[in-house]
Amino acid sequence: MLAAHVLIFKSYYDVDDRGSFLLALLAMTHSPISKPCRGHLFHRTTMLVGKPAMDRLGTLHVAVFGVGGVGSWTAESLIRSGVEHLTIVDSDVVCSTNVNRQLQATALNVGSPKVDELRKRLLEINPQATIHARQMVYNERTADQFDLRSFDYVIDAIDSLCNKVLLVQKCQEAGVTIYASMGAGAKLDPTQIKVAKLVDTKMCPLARMVRKRLGRRKASADFLCVYSEEAPLDPATETLCGTGNCACSHAHPKTPEPDSENPDWCARKTRINGTAVHITAVFGFMLAGLVIQDAVRRAN
């Protein structure tokens, strides 16, 4: 049987001596696998939205600020949906306590920059994508380093209240569409996750504080956000996060300055909440969905 297969191979590849046969076999088995084209990668999405919308998605430039439990899933959803120009912004490194909910976090990359680890994963999904990874804080000191008008959409998945409010205000001033995540921590019921304008949200303490601070800045609360109407759940156990003895404390200075480029975010939070990936991921997917649905509507 093997001899018959060898004869067929020799005939098909037009080789008649043993040396040529081995060279042909070696070339066949070591030839690089061709990379799938965009049409193949996003064929099922094109079937759903049509080619004009698919072409539109490929030209979008989206910025995701904060790539933790919510933003990391938003970024992957956008890339898998055909967005090919993405900027991801986050100052933090992977901590072992991130593994339960953050897409790029594994037991093997603890201590690595979140944006770098996420960029590697996204490029494995679509090697043709252009992904800018910026390991930095978005705050009053760094805001001028971002030309928000260069983005078609901005996703706010920032934990810091003051920086979240700043980003929303700057996007409004720049005339850029922003979709924001409100509080995804201390939740367990995904059926209570909603989309509404910030002004219409309820049962979300973070949304209430964002509205209040935007009001102080004379900024609008008339933009879409993802939030949950589930009453926040109290922590079931104590945590070392933010105490200086937590798993990630080695990555941060012991006394971080308020505007540090590598702040200890846990130490700056008034409360550390429990989290679940089936909540944070749904938040992230819904934010990506807002971008995709709006882009499809505009294309059609």
Characterization of this structure:
The protein is of the alpha/beta class. The protein has a single domain (38-299), classed as NAD(P)-binding Rossmann-like Domain (Rossmann fold, 3-Layer(aba) Sandwich), CATH 3.40.50.720. The chain is 40% helix and 11% strand. It has helices spanning 2-13, 18-30, 38-41, 43-49, 51-59, 71-80, 114-125, 161-174, 205-216, 265-268, 277-299; strands spanning 61-65, 85-89, 130-134, 153-156, 177-181, 193-197, 224-228. A seven-stranded mixed sheet has the order 3-2-1-4-5-7-6, sandwiched between helices. The longest helix is centred in the C-terminal third of the chain and has 23 residues, at 277-299. 36% of the residues are buried.
Task: Give a short synopsis of this structure.
With 300 residues, the chain is an alpha/beta fold. It is 40% helix and 11% strand. The protein has a single domain, classed as 3-Layer(aba) Sandwich (Rossmann fold).
Secondary structure elements and pairings:
Blueprint: H1 2-13, H2 18-30, H3 38-41, H4 43-49, H5 51-59, E1 61-65, H6 71-80, E2 85-89, H7 114-125, E3 130-134, E4 153-156, H8 161-174, E5 177-181, E6 193-197, H9 205-216, E7 224-228, H10 265-268, H11 277-299
Helix pairs in contact: 4-5, 5-11, 6-11, 8-9
